[in-house]
Design goal:
Blueprint: E1 2-11, E2 14-24, E3 29-33, H1 40-47, E4 55-59, E5 66-68, H2 80-85, H3 89-104, H4 107-119, H5 125-135, H6 152-165, E6 170-174, H7 182-193, E7 198-202, H8 206-212, E8 215-220, E9 223-228, H9 231-243, H10 246-269, H11 274-289, E10 313-322, E11 325-335, E12 340-344, H12 351-359, E13 366-371, E14 377-380, H13 394-401, H14 407-415, H15 422-425, H16 433-446, E15 451-455, H17 463-474, E16 479-483, H18 487-493, E17 496-501, E18 504-507, H19 515-522, H20 541-583, H21 594-632
Parallel strand pairs: 3-7, 3-8, 5-6, 6-7, 12-16, 12-17, 14-15, 15-16
Antiparallel strand pairs: 1-2, 1-4, 8-9, 10-11, 10-13, 17-18
InterPro entries: AAA+_ATPase (IPR003593), ABC_tran_Xtn (IPR032781), ABC_transporter-like_ATP-bd (IPR003439), ABC_transporter-like_CS (IPR017871), ABCF (IPR050611), P-loop_NTPase (IPR027417)
Family: Belongs to the ABC transporter superfamily. ABCF family. YheS subfamily.
Protein name: Probable ATP-binding protein YheS
Length: about 625
């Protein structure tokens, strides 16, 4: 198991962790969440051995294979599939030893190594690598292209495929969905759900976390708190804690009232379309999750557009593409104020092309694009982050956009996007990708557009900013067209789903939950299931099954005991946390509450003792199980 014991760590003057203790059991899938800059990536560096604790201990089981995505963008002239195969370090070691044995004419050594290669599924490794690349969106034949022929985003997909190629015991993933489209996110989600090792995942995608993780680890103010359940369960538990604080509770009530009001207005107008019903459910769910974000640093909204003409924009018989290559054809679309459209479609189908046509950045090759005289487009795309003036401040960018506004008014506005104090007047150059994305959104919203085009707006945005953006978009009065791999954002903002496929754009027959099934039907071979069977190709399967069954029967009592102890540990740890929270409340120390205080203290001491005993038993049983497994190997 992975253990942190009373661990503290600094980066320069900043204290990232203070007295942190944590136990992650084999096979658990843990989502690591916390504000940007709280120390999540530094914790990963600690687990990789690149940083060291100031005090305390960090321990991993001996022999665990750890996999993570390299921080640098991959480069090189070698084929993509060879780069991915390098992720299986044992495979490459055996292949090198085989080549050396062949060169030396050592037939005995060759036979021994060939058996090892077969036992790890080495003869099917290239097929496994190809499936990883296909799942992440690479087209057939792309696997032979040189690594350096790909753009930066696709190279990061290659780095992710290389990491997944490793037959790891511990997998560390830091924002793996940032460079993926929705199709690849759905594939990766399925792959991780079938992953047999221990996973620690940093992600700002709520639906992705909910689907993959079984526990949520919250890093806040130097402390680590492990919650049982996925991200939604964490939000509910954290909301309960925050609601105990009076000031937070009052603000929570205002947020809930605001959401109630919007839901009621929306319900009165909603049709019986499945997309509309899905959005109502998502909005109702927001009543549960809003309290967990009462301390969010982001607070902003859209002012009503100056003009709302009907229609805003119309496409008739439109075709578009690049360099004579058609992408879209026969497109008819009319956008009116209040339209909320989410675009679905496989990678390369033309979603971004359609957005560029709507924005006027790409001229149609046929047909007509008609716009209202008062049309004002707000267009967000990733390339716009590079168009910021890096030597100027966020405040200067905003002053150029709105020269008549006072400096204080602009500072107040920027504060809602997390640019307060000196951050508003400091140069853009050192800002992170997420901070630049927030600034571009701030500039866009300030212009009060009546047509909002958002192409992957949540890349690099943390959960708090995504939550604030989704709430702001619900009040937006203009027309919205959205491309996003963040399904939560799509659920709570899009009333209509359009499918871009085969050059055509048409309403999607279903809701967002039906989209993975549509993908699977179009491409049955594109599955996220981990092909564990490949590790046994060519072996004597009948004998192997018999031996495995005998070993399972012999070790089953120990496994059952270990699982029972794990359940006991989780139950006792949860109760111990509840008691600690209760004893942290000031009112419990009032004279009239003394009987209650004594009862809580007595139970806390008893639970702590039981927890210590259970942990000792768990260690002893785990060691015995590992020893017997090693003896049987």
């Amino acid at each position: 198991m992975l253990q942190l014991t009373d661990l503290s760590m600094r980066r320069g003057p900043r204290l990232l962790l203070s007295g942190a203790s944590l136990t992650v059991y084999p096979g658990q899938k843990v989502g690591l969440v916390g504000a940007n800059g709280s120390g999540k990536s530094s914790l990963f560096a600690l687990l990789r051995g690149e940083l060291h604790a100031d005090t305390g201990d960090c321990s991993l089981p001996a022999g665990w294979e750890l996999a993570h995505v390299a921080q640098h963008t991959p480069d090189g002239a070698g084929p993509a599939i060879e780069f991915v195969l390098d992720g299986d370090r044992e495979l490459r070691r055996i292949q090198l030893d085989l080549a050396a044995a062949d060169a030396a004419g050592d037939g005995l050594r060759h036979g021994e190594l060939a058996g090892q290669l077969e036992s790890i599924g080495g003869y099917g490794a290239e097929s496994r690598a190809g499936r990883l690349l296909h799942g992440l969106g690479f087209a057939p034949g792309d696997e032979r292209r040189p690594v350096n022929s790909y753009s930066g985003g696709w190279r990061m997909r290659l780095a992710l495929a290389r990491t997944l190629m490793c037959r790891s015991d511990l997998l560390l993933l830091d924002e793996p969905t940032n460079h993926l489209d929705l199709d690849a996110v759905i594939w990766l989600e399925a792959w991780l759900k079938s992953y047999q090792g221990t996973l620690i995942l940093i992600s700002h995608d709520r639906d992705f976390l909910d689907s993959v993780v079984s526990h949520t680890l919250h890093l806040e103010q130097g402390r680590l708190t492990l919650y049982a359940g996925n991200y939604s369960a964490f939000e509910r538990q954290r909301a309960e804690r925050l609601a105990q604080q009076q000031s937070a509770y009052e603000r929570q009530q205002r947020e809930v009232a605001h959401i109630h009001s919007f839901v009621e207005r929306f319900r009165a107008k909603a049709t019986k379309a499945r997309q509309a019903q899905s959005r109502i459910k998502a909005l109702e769910r927001m009543e549960l999750i809003a309290p967990a974000h009462v301390d969010s640093p982001f607070h902003f909204g859209f002012e009503a557009p100056t003009h709302l003409p009907h229609p805003l924009l119309r496409l008739e018989g439109l075709a578009a593409g690049y360099a004579g290559r058609p992408i879209l054809k026969g497109l008819n679309l009319s956008l009116n104020p209040g339209d909320r459209i989410g675009l679905l479609g496989r990678n390369g189908a033309g979603k971004s092309t359609l957005v560029k046509v709507l924005a006027g950045d790409l001229a149609p090759s046929a047909g007509r694009r008609e716009t209202a005289q008062e049309l004002k487009v707000g267009y967000f795309a990733q390339h716009q982050l590079d168009q910021l003036r890096i030597d100027e401040s966020p405040l200067k960018h905003l002053q150029r956009l709105d020269p008549k506004a006072t400096e204080q008014a602009l500072r107040d506005y920027l504060g809602g996007f997390g640019f307060d104090g000196d951050r508003a007047s400091s140069p853009v150059a050192p800002l992170s990708g997420g901070e630049k994305a927030r600034l571009v959104l701030a500039l866009l919203i300030r212009q009060r557009p009546n047509l909002l085009l958002l192409d992957e707006p949540t890349n690099h945005l943390d959960l708090e900013m995504r939550q604030a953006l989704s709430e702001a978009l619900q009040e937006y009065e203009g027309a919205l067209v959205l491309v996003s791999h963040d399904r939560h954002l799509l659920r709570v903002t899009a009333d209509t789903l359009l499918l871009v496929d085969g050059g055509l754009v048409a309403p999607f027959d279903g809701d967002l939950d039906d989209y993975p099934a549509w993908l699977a039907a179009r491409d049955p071979d594109r599955t996220g299931a981990r092909p564990e069977a490949e590790a046994r190709e060519g072996a004597d399967r009948k004998q192997q099954r018999r031996q495995s069954a005998d070993l399972r029967r012999a070790l089953q009592p120990l496994r059952n005991r270990l699982q029972a102890l794990e359940r006991t540990l989780e139950r006792l740890a949860a109760r111990h946390q509840e008691l600690a929270s209760a004893l942290a409340q000031p009112e419990i120390y009032a004279p009239e509450a003394k009987p209650r205080l004594l009862t809580l203290m007595e139970e806390s001491n008893r639970v702590a003792a039981e927890l210590a005993v259970a942990e000792t038993q768990w260690l002893e049983v785990g060691e015995e199980l590992e020893q017997r497994q090693a003896e049987s190997a």
